[in-house]
Every structure is written in C-alpha cells, then in structure tokens.
Design a protein that fits this description.
2 copies of one chain form a homodimer. By secondary structure, chain A is α/β, with parallel strands linked by helices. Chain A is about 40% helix and about 10% strand. Chain A contains 15 helices and 12 strands. In chain A, the strands form 2 sheets. Chain A has a 9-stranded mixed β-sheet, sandwiched between helices. In chain A, strands 10-12-11 form a 3-stranded antiparallel β-sheet. In chain A, strand 11 and strand 12 form a beta hairpin. The two termini of chain A are about 35 Å apart. At the A-B interface, helix 5 and helix 10 of A face helix 5 and helix 10 of B.
Chain lengths: ~400, ~400
Amino acid sequence: MTRRSYPVAHLPRLIHTDPGENDVDNSNTPPATKLTDAERVDWLRLIRSDNVGPRTFRSLMNHFGSAKAALARLPELARRGGAARGGRICSEDDAGAELAASTRLGVSLVAPDEAGYPPRLATLDDAPPLLGVRGAMETLMRPMIAIVGSRNASGAGLKFAGQLAHGLSEAGFVIASGLARGIDQAAHRFSIDGGTVAVLAGGHDRIYPPEHEDLLAQILASGAAISEMPLGHAPRARDFPRRNRLISGAALGVVVVEAAHRSGSLITARIAAEQGREVFAVPGSPLDPRAAGTNDLIKQGATLITEAADVIDAVQPIMERPIELREPDGNDRFNDRFKDPWDLDPDTGERARIVALLGPAPVSLDDLVRMAAASPATVRVVLLELELAGRLERHGGGMVSLI
Amino acid sequence: MTRRSYPVAHLPRLIHTDPGENDVDNSNTPPATKLTDAERVDWLRLIRSDNVGPRTFRSLMNHFGSAKAALARLPELARRGGAARGGRICSEDDAGAELAASTRLGVSLVAPDEAGYPPRLATLDDAPPLLGVRGAMETLMRPMIAIVGSRNASGAGLKFAGQLAHGLSEAGFVIASGLARGIDQAAHRFSIDGGTVAVLAGGHDRIYPPEHEDLLAQILASGAAISEMPLGHAPRARDFPRRNRLISGAALGVVVVEAAHRSGSLITARIAAEQGREVFAVPGSPLDPRAAGTNDLIKQGATLITEAADVIDAVQPIMERPIELREPDGNDRFNDRFKDPWDLDPDTGERARIVALLGPAPVSLDDLVRMAAASPATVRVVLLELELAGRLERHGGGMVSLI
C-alpha cells in the first residue's frame, strides 16, 4: 500500500517539511508547524469559498499545486461548469478576521500533520484541510475511542456509558464524543480527568446544546474541542452526520451504547465501518427499543462489548501497527501524469460528452474517462468546473454524481 | 462423509428393514417399527443393566452383534474388567414389567429410526438406544428448535421467550425445552397449539417440578414428552446436564434466552455446539446479570437473535440439507476388521499393559492400540471389560478415560 500524507505529498514546494516528517508519528511528539501564515490564510480562503468542501479542496490542491493558485482560477472554472455567476470566494480580509477571532477564542486552525490534528483523522479522504482546535492540544495526539449513543438514553445506558468511559480513560484512552445530551454527556463527564474530546457540529462559538457550555469548559481544562466549521456557524440538522465522520475518523473505534432504529448513532457506526474503524455495540434486551439499533449492529458484524476490556482487547493490535494511510483515490491517480494541467481548456464537445455521462448515480472517474474517450486530465478539469458551479457531488473511492 | 444410521448399519441381521430405509427421511412420513418385541426386551435389559450407558450399549452391540449376545457375556466381561462381582443385569421380568408399565402410561420405548424417535437425536454418538416417548409422536418427527434459559428469569425474559416460542411455532417449528420454571415454562406454554416437546430428566412418572404436571398434560395434547430414564427414576442434579444433550440433540438449534454466568443453560449451549447444533443467544444489558451468560455466548460466536425471523433465517439452509450423520467414532472404525471377536480373551499381560496406559485424562483408541502394541480388537475388549466393571468413561470422538 502506498503511504500518503495528505496533502503534504502533493505540495513539496510549499510546505516546509523534510521527507522524514511525512512518516506519520505514532508517538506523542507533537509535529512541527508546517504552513506559513500566508499559506494558512490561503487555505482558509479556499475551504471557506462556495462549493469547496474537503474533497474539492484536495482536488484543487492536487490540480493547481497551491491554494493561492486555485483561488485565482475559481471564478473561471465555476463559470465554465455552468454557474450563472461564480460562487462567493472568501476574501483575504474575511479569512484574516476568522483567524484573528479564532485566536481570541483560543482556537487554532491546524492542517493535517500539524500539532493538534488527530493523526488518524488526517488519513481520511475527506479530512478537513483546516481543523479548529481548542483546549489541550496534546490530547488530540493520543489514542482515542469514540463513545456515542441516544440523547434520550435509559438510566442503565447512561450508567454503562459512564462506566465504560471511565474504564477506557483509566486505561489511557482519550474519549471522543459529540457533546450531545444523554450518552455523549455521560461519556465526556466520566472521562474528563483523563482527557476527552468534544467534536462540534457548529463553530466553536456556537455550542449545541447551549446548556453544555459548562461541560465544555470542564472538558477544555484537560481535553479539547474540535470543529471544521467557521466561527458563527450555528449547527443545522445536516451538519451532524457530517460532524459524525470526524468523531469516528479521529478514533481507533466507535462504541455505540444505546441506539434506536434509524438513529444518528447508527450513521456514525456506518461511517466508522466505511472508514475502516472498529465498530463496537452494547447489547440490550430485544424488548427495549433503545437497544434495537445496537443489537442490529451486532447482527451486521459489530463487536459486542460489555466492558472496557473488550474494547481494549480489540484495539490493542491496531495500536501496535503504524497508522495505515488509504490508497489514493481516483483523483490522485490521475495527478502524476499531468504536470502542467491548468491551461487545459476542454472544448465544448468534450465537456458536453462528459456532462451527458453523469447523473444522480455515482460513477467512477475511470468509467468516465473510458466512456467519454477523453483524457483523464480533461475529465478532471470538467469535474472541477462542475463542482465549483455547485453541480457535482464527490463520493468516496473516486466516485462522482451530478446534483 | 460416511452416512451412518445408528445402530442399524451394524445390525443388518436383526433389524427388519430394507436398505432404502437406512436413509434418514427428512419428510414427515413416520418410519416403520424396526425392532421385534423380543429385541425390544433385550435392548431394554441391556441399557438398564449396571454400567451400560448409550456409548457402552453401542460398543457392545457393535462387538457382539445383538443385545441378546451382549447380555450373555456381561458378567464374564465385568469380572475380567476387575469388578469384585458383576454389575446388576436387568432381568427379562424387570424389562417386561417396565414395558408394560410404560404402555399403561402411554409411553412407547422407541429405537433410533423408529417412529417417534427425533431424527436428529438419532445422529448423536450417545443417542439413547431406547427413548421413552409419550404424547403426539408425529410432533417428534418435525423440525425442532430448543428454547432454554434461567429458572428465575426477568419479566422481560419470560415475555420474550413466549413471543419467540409463539413466532417459531407459527412458522411450523416444534419447540423443545426442559419443563423447568421460568424460560422453559414460557417457551412451552406459548407453543402448545403448534406442538411442543418436554424433555425430562427423570422417568415419565416423576415429573419435575411437580407443579408442572398440569402444564405437561396440556403439552401432551398436541405435543410430546421424552425421557431416556426408567419409570420411577426421580431426577437428581447430575441427570439434568445429561438430559440437556437430548434437548439440543433433537433440535436444529438452541436459543438461550436469559442466563447468568455458569448457569445450566450455558452447559446446554456448549453441548449444542459440540453436537454441531446452531447456538442462538438473546442479548441483554451489560448491567443485567441475567444477561451475562447470553452476552458471553455471543462474544464466543453464538448468533445474536432478537426475533423468530433471525432463527428461521439461520436454520433454513440446514433444513434444506439431508440430516448429516457423524463420522463413526473410534469404536466403530475397528468393527469392520473383526468378524468374530467375542471369543477373544486378552492375556493378562496385554490387559495390564492397556490398563496401565489409561488414566483420568481421555486418550484415543488409536493411541492405545499404538502404545500398547496390541490389536484393536484386544484393546476394544479390554475397554469393554473395564466399562462393565464401572471403571471406564467414554467421551466423544472415541476417547476414553479411567474413572
């Protein structure tokens, strides 16, 4: 398997690093700062611009070589992709203001492989290019277990979540959760001394639920909070599943304590499995609807656990291996072949052919290249254009679909 | 795999059958009676004699070719095995009296492959040579699921056991259980209409617990009760594990509903796994000690179930296959080689050599033959002698140990 340290491997000119640092460090030594101040502003502008999510960010970086170069090309690409007018581009002033406000709140915006960026989170295809990190940063570099579950948990569920969090914390694990009511709250509360991480769905200044401000203050003393959202962003319903990928992505595994059918915790479990994380579930009576989701998870292959030792036994072998990075997806594979692609302007016929092949069902880049009889570079550019025009969705494994 | 229809394959002269009937019948057509009245008396005398259990019975049948011939040799063999005086041999009168009393109570004593003998039970190495069967015999020929669990079950456990039994019963399965208080009682009660089977640890006239006489009467209307014990035998503690092998052995699989650590139901689950039966367990909260055993079973590989459909999905593929008989064990493998072994009288030196090799740890017949440098027939005879003297225990897979 190719080891990849996103996005450093693709930016040797811009990021101040030496080759040895590209190896992910499993020890607790904090990695050095890697972005310059100016780069950090460019990165922030790019990720805060319209229609640029983590995957598009990476695609643009791989394509144009720097955030600065990508920013310069955004309006033109969006127009070619069919946007009536280009999406809003985050200004240097706005990015500077966000950085300043973050600093005032004690939030650092860190890039993958920088100190405070959870090492396992950095391995995700859709890892946030900049993560807002607040509190005791070293907590984020330690092995983490996520504990999630129902907001309206039973007394037994809350008690068990607390026992488990305490047991794992005593064993040296950091507990990650979502700061919600119920199981999340119990998991944080019983692991505060050992360090716990609240993963937020909104900005660092928009804590949800508001009554957990006090809990967060306690967490930050020896733990941390992380968010990929800008300050001022109040979390909406759709932000929670997006946030959940960070909870599982940062952890070795996810324990689902209590979950009804079709609950948010099950989405976290599904994402965790897709990310290659261990999924653990706490069993319950078939007559208890709050255990329906966890029992289902076990039926589907999750590991049944009844105590902290069960979790530790399962993650121990994973911890002993170096962190495995994923195969580069389709986007990256085309990159090496084209060293100077940004002057490429597909002709109208090619662009129409590629767009016609796209639909709501995800299709792979490989298939598009083959079916459109176009060069990989051309397909890539057309997809970027569509993306920036808000017409394309990127999925895992190099799959794309039209919105 | 060799298909074997115990013990018919070894008794072609004595049992009135044609070769086609040796195939186990997966349909509901009741097999014909196969033992003559005289043979049934001999079989009953042999299995009711001291130191003759199901494995010894089979060993004797394989060795001497008939129960009658075995009975004639018992005293001599036991004496040679070191018994001060031979064990009690069941007289023809006693056997006749038991048969008559059984008939009066509506109990038939049936041999493997006869009508009323559960087809899957007949495949066990230690299948009872004669099974006391009472009630609606055809129930015993249908596919069975065993449901077992705690005597002091929770309300939820009892409710779930009832729901599950009802659901499986509606789907056409016969429910087997042990007529105990708690889970067993609920399982029987909610499957009475569809047919349920009480597997007894004592004789048919010694119902335990006594207050379940009424429940048994209801069961017998459209279901059945089975026992391998003689009439008048009041069940002792050690009879229950022995009985449990019949519960699991007759069934496609065993569902454990609620079980604490180290409970009897876990013994049934272990035996079921050894018998190659499916083991299902109902999950429960880690904080509920009555679920500790079932959660452990799931950790060890039992299938978590929360509804009847889970069980049905798992056993459907097994039902579609013909019933697979086990490999003959060590006892049988030696049989074909010796056509006239009963005049064999090992000399004192050989006997001493074989006995010296035996101890409390089980050893295989193969190893004994090799280490004693004796013929398989000689080893077999010595073991039979020891067995009848009450000095030998037979385990599965042709293993033996000294008591």
